[in-house]
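Box 4.2: Ligand-aware structure prediction
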Amino acid sequence: MTIRPLLPALAAILFLTTCFSTPAAGDMPLGSYAAEPTVRIGVLLKAQSAAIGLDGNYSVVNKETGEVLAQGKNGDFTVSLVPSPSHGVPGSLYRITVGSFKSYEDAAFHTEKLNRLGEYMRIAYPDGWFIWFGPYSSAQEARAVLEKVKAAGYANSTIEPVPLGKAGYIVSAAGGGIVYSGSSPLLFRASSNLVAVGKSTFRGSAEILPDSIGSFSVVNLVKAEDYLKSVVPSEMPSGAHHEALKAQAIIARTYLLNNRHRHEVDGFELCGTTDCQVYSGIGHEFESTNRAIFDTRGIVVSFNGRLANALFHSTCGGRTSNYTDIWSGPSVPYLVSVNDGTKTPVQPMDTESGFIGFLNDGGGHCKKSKYYRWDRANTLQEMQDIINETIPKYLNRPGLKPGALSDIRILERGASGRVIRISIDTAQDSYVFERDAIRWVLGNLKSTLFTVSKNSDAKGQTTFTFRGAGWGHGVGLCQMGAMALARDGKSVRDIISHYYKGSTLVKLWD
Ligand SMILES: [Zn+2]
Ligand SMILES: [Zn+2]
């Protein structure tokens, strides 16, 4: 057994000189799959240490050299981080960090705006989503680009040193001494086709590799269909009707194929948290969801020969949302508002009176949801506390004091009934927010399908009362509605084509 020195990976970092472009979150080409793909899921991120267990005949292989580092029957290993010795010392490289952004999609949207600077950039996920420029070989060079980035409207961008060498790790076998020291990617696999990482057990094998922020990742290499077995039950109750579970399986598979680029910067595809799709291993699989995955094997939602952006939410409230009522950008032909119930809603939905008529209607497919209709009352002081926290955050102005709240006004409602623009009026200013941001700036409203009124009682106590419908953004498939449609005898095809207008189901692998 030999212990290798930690080699700096300077050449690899400097090699990154091409320009950057980001595919949209949805609408990727269908791709050709001769067989079911193996996907790379980050199951332990930013790790300083990890425990990896292998059942059955196992091997640990250096993926760079092909060398077998350890083999045997039933092995347990611990991996410990060895930080790069050159992190932040004089002579370092520098990068510019822009952000944070609330999602990968949001960061991707801003890379398109920043592309005209002609500088190399990429999307990174060190602690929330960021855009990184560089690396640059001197602080002066980085500062010159920083000025351009700031001038483009990204005022709180900063420069930080980049580690010259990758982090490495020491791998020890339980009772067997050191197996490896260095920073090559290592593959852990066993005849059981199972690998334990900490307390969770995953199908497939595991790889460890250094990440982009000086720690390491544990990546699970797993067949796409096996991955879905742990994902689908986190997204829909396993007791739901078989046809509804099939719809959810198809959606999760479509999302997987649309998003294999998200964590490229760290050498894997998707992470296992709510940021991508929750994935926690075989301990979270169910017979019913496994069957729904098996019965839809290889099938995805497609539109116009491309993968659809198969968005979903819990409860639409009786009418789903247009994509453009929630996010800015061009409209998406299959993500348009559909009537999710037996009655035709009062028209038009974009007036206050039309919307109140809709609220009083109880005929939605998702009416069994406890969020089909909801209300929320907040005192003036409660709303003041909410906006004092959310407005500076959303405007990215940390020191801002919004001023004494006087009113919350709906300025515009979309055709699907969703509030598109509000004004929050204070003694100091009127703050206008649009679309999805409205939910968060008003303190986690269940949806943007709401109306608000301000009332003062005899004692002069002022209350804001929100009346609303649904839970979630409302775009695409309504899960509570899909479950009801399935119980009523609708097939997975009926359900998918109801919520994704004009879409088709395509089988990509057998
Ligand atoms: Zn992720
Ligand atoms: Zn619904």
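In the box above, the bound molecule is zinc ion. Residues 1-24 have pLDDT under 50 and may be disordered.
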